[in-house]
Amino acid sequence: MKEGLDVVLNFQRNEITEAQVYGFLSKLAKGKNKEILNRIRNDELKHYQMWREISGQDVNINWLKVFYYSLLALIFGVTFTIKLMEKGEESAELAYKGIASQYTQAEAIYKDEEKHEETLYKLIEEEKLSYLGSIVLGLNDALVEITGTLAGLSFALRVSQTVGIAGLITGVAASLSMAASEYLSQVADGKPNPMKAAIYTLIAYFVVVLALVLPYFFIGDAVTAFVFTVGIGLLVVVYYAGFASVIHEKSFEGTFLQMLLVVFGVSLISFGIGELARRVFGISV
């Protein structure tokens, strides 16, 4: 019985904790999303009360978990956070199903969790996810083009600040060009908000450019600065792969390796071209 009570108390703690998380998420949302998240929160509170009737005890909220998911929501958005929580609930759903014969409440809670997954989660709308393709376009192109450009310039010119300025100028021009291309592409496809898609592409591209060129303005040696740029590029790849794997429910490893091979494969080729140019044409600054 002690083991059974521990399981019930664990479920009870999860429900009250997730109710707090959904309450925080509802404060970030507006309109229909706020209403949906409040409905989920109320369901979690109902589940908590059902478990409390069995245990006869109150439990403490896991505030660390609340803080963790709240921080993720602020950084990655509501949809990302809900999908991540949903992954954790998959094991809970199986556990509910496993003890349904012992506690009739478990069956009702299991059905509610299925309803969340099948109905409520799919109703949530987040603007930036509508433009995820535009964001990915800017982010991925900036990683490939600017990392490759900086690799070539670093080994050809060897002067850190010169490479940084050249990379920044190239990045600004490329971000404007990419945004214009995305705008025209959206117009050609008859999409409703081509300007907004172009702005998302521009911002994603430019933010990555700034991150990649930053080491060149603080580190005197261009090759050393490029090593730090590679590290920053790697962090961007990890960020994107983690985000995409959760949103699209794909393997993190597969997405990460694919991006890594493309980005750093281009960098390696550019390094070779830059080194060849330096040796053949005697370029030095």
From TrEMBL:
Location in the cell: Endomembrane system
UniProt KW keywords: Membrane, Transmembrane, Transmembrane helix
Primary location group: membrane
Membrane-topology annotation of the record: Multi-pass membrane protein
Transmembrane parts of this sequence: 66-85, 163-185, 197-219, 225-247, 259-277
A GO molecular-function descriptor: manganese ion transmembrane transporter activity
InterPro entries: Ccc1_fam, Ferritin-like_SF, Ferritin_CCC1_N
One biological process term in Gene Ontology: intracellular manganese ion homeostasis
The keyword Plastid is annotated on this UniProt entry: no
Listed GO CC annotations: endomembrane system
Annotated coiled-coil segments of the chain: none
PANTHER family according to UniProt: FE(2+)/MN(2+) TRANSPORTER PCL1
Entry protein name: Integral membrane protein
Lineage of the organism: Bacteria, Pseudomonadati, Coprothermobacterota, Coprothermobacteria, Coprothermobacterales
